[in-house]
Every structure is written in structure tokens, then in C-alpha cells.
What does this fold into?
Amino acid sequence: AQSVAQPEDQVNVAEGNPLTVKCTYSVSGNPYLFWYVQYPNRGLQFLLKYITGDNLVKGSYGFEAEFNKSQTSFHLKKPSALVSDSALYFCAVRDWEYGNKLVFGAGTILRVKS
Amino acid sequence: GAGVSQTPSNKVTEKGKYVELRCDPISGHTALYWYRQSLGQGPEFLIYFQGTGAADDSGLPNDRFFAVRPEGSVSTLKIQRTERGDSAVYLCASSLGTPNTEAFFGQGTRLTVV
It folds into this structure.
């Protein structure tokens, strides 16, 4: 069965500084990895995904993520944080060999201070 | 519609009552997912449909929970004999049903059992 770990409950960063939100995963087959963002009282919004190919994927709002197969990680990054990036971020994994089920991590709160 | 629509947005019910939560997916999306999200936690997988059939219902917590998608479009999550522990936000998502496609989420239904 697939699983996702987000080791940090909260990440604090100053506006303009780079940010990283960590994610590690466990699958039996090949992983398909996703990042979502959730603003207060809103549904989850898709940010980016890794399916195959280039290990660095780019997504919405200037976010990117790096897939590292040896470390089974898929960390979310942004070169320069904005206050408006403050939200709850979820990493998710799908192991296609075991169906279309999408499993989420517990989430990481990102706080960007001006 | 343009996005995934969930109704009602809020539902308050008494312990022991029956509730139905509705999800209208994005047109043409063959996969439909139900998740449950408690405060401060990540979405917990309940069930997903591929077309009309439940492809994976391993996340349904017990036999009080049931979901249908009779025509491969709209889905209804049904909860019998509700308990206070069922209180959560119930999220629905849909996707094109292939492994490399992301799921799009609705705004959720906040269920409160009193």
C-alpha cells in the first residue's frame, strides 16, 4: 500500500526567502506524485505533478518540486516566498499498479511573514 | 459545470439520522473520489469510482457508509445512523481516470452531527 509522510507540521519563512516543504513517499510500484494547496475554508487546489521524465517539475504560482527516487522524496520548493503563499500544503501519491487511489499526507502549514 | 460541485455545503444532523451528500463531477471525468477531512488532518480516502463501479472502497470505515454512482456521473455518499465521530468535511474529486491526471476537488460538505 502507498503512503506519504510530511515530516513538518509547520514551516515558517520570511517573505522573499526560498521555501521548501518536505514530502517522502512509499509505494510498491512506480509513484505518481502530486502537490495540492488548501486555503482556509476552500477545497484543495492542484499545484503540480510528477509522472515521469525530468525530476524537476514546475507548477502553478512559481512552485516547483524535485523528485528523488533514491531518497523517495518529492519536496516542494519556491525560490522567493510571498505572504500570499501562506496556506496548508498536501503531498499525495498514486501507485498505479494498485489502482487509481490517491493517498494524501497529513499536510504542512506554510507561514510566510513579511 | 466548470468544476466539481458538492451539495449541500453544510449539513447539521442529529445523531442517529441518515444523510446523503451529493457530488457532481466535471463533465467527462470517469473517475470520482470521496475523501473525509477532519480538522488539522489530511484527506482520508474513502472510495473511488471508475465509471459506475466502485473500483476501491477500502477506505469506507464501516457498513454505515455507502456510495453510489448509478449513471457514471453524479455520486451520492450515504451515511446511516450518523454518529458524532462522523463530523468532518467530506470532499469529492474527479479526474479523467488515467494515472497521469490530477484530481480536481470540490469545496466540500461540512457535516456536523449533534
In short: Chain B has a mean pLDDT of 95.
